[in-house]
Each structure stands twice: as C-alpha cells, then as structure tokens.
C-alpha cells in the first residue's frame, strides 16, 4: 500500500467516525416519534443509509450543514459538483457554511442523501475513492457514452448510475 493510500484510508476512517456521531446526534434531535421509530442504539452512517424510514425523516427534517459538510468531505464530489447537483451557487454553499444552524430544504436534503448513496455503492464496488472518482469522470458506453457524474443531477440519472454500479459489482458488463 502506498503512503497516499494509507493517508486516504486514515482520513476516510476519521470522517466515517465523525459521520457516525453526527448522524446519531441529528437523529436524536429529529422527531422520530412522529414516524413511530424508536432507536435503541446509536445509528451509524451505514445504518442510516440502509434504513429508508430514517432517510425519510432526514429529508423531511432537512439535513443540517454540519452533516452535509461531513458527507461532502466523504464523497468524491467537488464543491462545484455539489452546487450543480443541488442547483444552487457555490456562493450559497459557502454562505450556508457560515450560518450556524442552516438546514437544507427537503429537495436539497434528498439530493444530498442520493449522492451519499451513490458514494456508498461506488465504494462497495471499487473499494477506493480514487477508483470511484475515475469511474465517475470517464465516459461510459453503457450510459450512452456519458460520464456517470453527468447523470447524477436528477433522480433517474442517479438510478441509471446505481444500476450500472450494481451490474459491475455482479460482473455483468455491457
């Protein structure tokens, strides 16, 4: 393993731990009882992404910037990518960062979670953020010769990207 790979693994582990704590804290502050959800233990980031009811609560509550910042740091996407996905300016993203308790609107929260899901599936398939980033930015024949990242702005495109990642994971190449 290279020194760069070791450093990236350490950084990702640190961010994962912070994501786990932030998700747990965020969910404790959410109105889970309105959805008849009872948490008996701390919820990890991975638990959160695999529980559709918790995702619904997060979308409706609105992702706080503190959680978004960690998700942003964990994903392979740049600030410009995020601004494009969320259909807001980079200036707005920077302004939200300075606003103490900014919560994203549900439409933006849903997109943030979708990009977190793409990252999770991509890491499961490729095993590293660098390999995922390369795949996302390389034209893909199975996706109409578009770069997968170009399809992530809308939900249908995200589903195509997730489907292609799943096919790759199972060795079904077009």
TrEMBL record:
Residues 124-171 form the Antitoxin Xre/MbcA/ParS-like toxin-binding domain. This is Putative toxin-antitoxin system antitoxin component (TIGR02293 family). InterPro entries: Antitox_Xre, Xre/MbcA/ParS-like_toxin-bd. Pfam families: Xre_MbcA_ParS_C. It comes from the Bacteria.
